[in-house]
Amino acid sequence: KVLKDFGERVQLSVFEANLKPEQLEKLKKRVNKCIDQKEDSVRLYPLCAACTPRIEILGQGMVTQDPDVIVI
After folding, report:
1. Average of pLDDT values for 27-56?
2. How far apart are CA 68 and CA 71, in angstroms?
C-alpha cells in the first residue's frame, strides 16, 4: 500500500517510481515502519538518466514516465 502512494505497480510486488530525493527519503521511512526487519526485504534499484532509454519491456507494459502536468 505504501509503494502505491509513490509509484506505479508493474508486477504484483514490483513498482516503478520517479522520485525526488526528499520523496525517496519519505518512502524509505514509511516502508521501514511497516516491514518486519527480520523477515521482509524491500529493494530499491536506482537508474541513472542514461539507463532509462535502454529499458526493455517484453510483453505488456510501458516504462513509467514523469508526468508533464499533474491535475489534482
Report:
1. 90
2. 10
Cα separation, 59 vs 23, whole angstroms: 30
Please, which pLDDT band fits residue 72 given cuts at 50, 70 and 90? very low
3-state secondary structure of 58: coil
Give per-residue pLDDT as tens, 8-27: 888 888 898 888 899 999 99
Contacts of residue 1, Cβ cutoff 8 Å, sequence gap at least 6? none
Q: Return the H-helix or E-strand segment holding 33.
A: helix 21-34
* Rounded Cα distance, 35 and 37, in Å: 6
CA atoms within 13 A on the CB side of 65: 7
E strand segments, 1-72 = 8-11, 14-16
